[in-house]
Amino acid sequence: MPELPEMENYRRLLSQHIINVPITGVTVNREKTINVETNVFAEALLGARVVFVERRAKYILFHLYDGRRLLLHLMLGGMLFYGTEEERPERSTQVELAFGDHILYFIGLRLGYLHLVSVKEGEALMGKLGPELLDRRMTLERFEELLKKRRGALKTTLVNQHVFAGIGNCYADEIAYEAKLLPTVLIQTLTKDSIARLYEAVRKVLTEATDTGGYMEIPFMTGDTVTGAYNDQCKVYDREGEPCLRGGGTIVKVELSGRKVFYCPDCQHEQ
Fold first, then answer.
1. Is 235 a catalytic residue?
2. For the purposes of burial, counting CB atoms within 10 Å of the CB of 137, is it exposed (0-12), middle (13-18) or buried (19 or more)?
3. Bridge-partner residues for 56, per DSSP?
4. Which of the residues 11, 56, 58, 155 is marked catalytic?
């Protein structure tokens, strides 16, 4: 499932190409992907302009000129592609928005969705999320204070969207590895030094993953060499049985609260 780095990469790219460009065509191939009747959805968007693209956690919000929002959550398997009809991806699309001769293709939204919402509805949904970890206001002191209130495993805490916004399975494991902490360690047992190391790991992993395009499978558009470039940089995630890049250990996979967890038992510890 796309996480903060993937969605932030998309936000940056979308902002370069669709701002203030009129929507000239709307195609809905799967009605369950949207939240209103197809004709209502199309009428609301035809001729509209996106004036701002915002990312919040794993969501993207397209701010429309009339104040409404398009709320996107890609969920598992969702992705975006921006190109001409000739560049149409060989994937099924659930929604297509045309911006002149270019089309924004919403792909793989079998679980994901693109909803038309009011400002109030959008703010209500976003208000339930925890703070952003890359926000400049997320100081070490604030990070420590948020963790003081928590109990449970490190990974479970990191992926809880009501605690911190935007982290999922992949980056929770990568952050724990960078911090040299077991993903199963209990938050309430961490020392002040361990929390400081975790804070630095969060900032480092999420920033590097964002700047290198995350782990998406396909580029955002023809000629895009950034999107997905982080695929080969994961240190532990989905690398079960491979040697640890930091030492002589072997990456293992376990299950924690129904989630896959990847880590190195040799170089990741309780503190």
1. no
2. exposed
3. 59
4. 58
From 126, 161, 181, the end of a domain falls on 126
On whether both 95 and 144 belong to a single domain, the answer is no
Active site residue 2: yes
Domain-ending residue, one of 88, 103, 126: 126
Whether 269 is covered by a domain: the verdict is no
User: Residue 236: which CATH number?
Assistant: 1.10.8.50
**259 classed as catalytic:** yes
Catalytic-labelled residue, pool 3, 8, 132, 174? 3
Q: Which residues have CB under 8 Å from 69's CB, separation 6+?
A: 61, 62, 63, 116, 117, 118, 119, 121, 122
Each residue's pLDDT tens digit, 174-232: 999 999 999 999 999 999 999 999 999 999 999 999 999 999 989 999 999 999 999 88
Catalytic residue list contains 31: no
How many CA atoms lie less than 13 Å away from 203 in the CB half-sphere? Answer: 13
Angstrom distance (rounded) from CA 226 to CA 14: 13
Tokens 């790219």 sit at which residue? 13
The domain tally of the chain equals 2
Residues 88 and 155 in one domain: no
Joined together, the tokens standing for residue 237 give 């995630």
Contacts of 24 (CB under 8 A, 6+ apart): 46, 47, 98, 99, 100
Is residue 154 in a domain? yes
Calculate the alpha carbon distances from 75 to 27, 37, 159, 204 in Å: 20, 22, 14, 24
Q: Using one digit for the tens of pLDDT, what is the confidence trace for 103-148?
A: 999 999 999 999 999 999 999 999 999 999 999 999 999 999 999 9
Name the catalytic one among 2, 5, 183, 219: 2
Q: Which domain holds residue 238?
A: 140-263
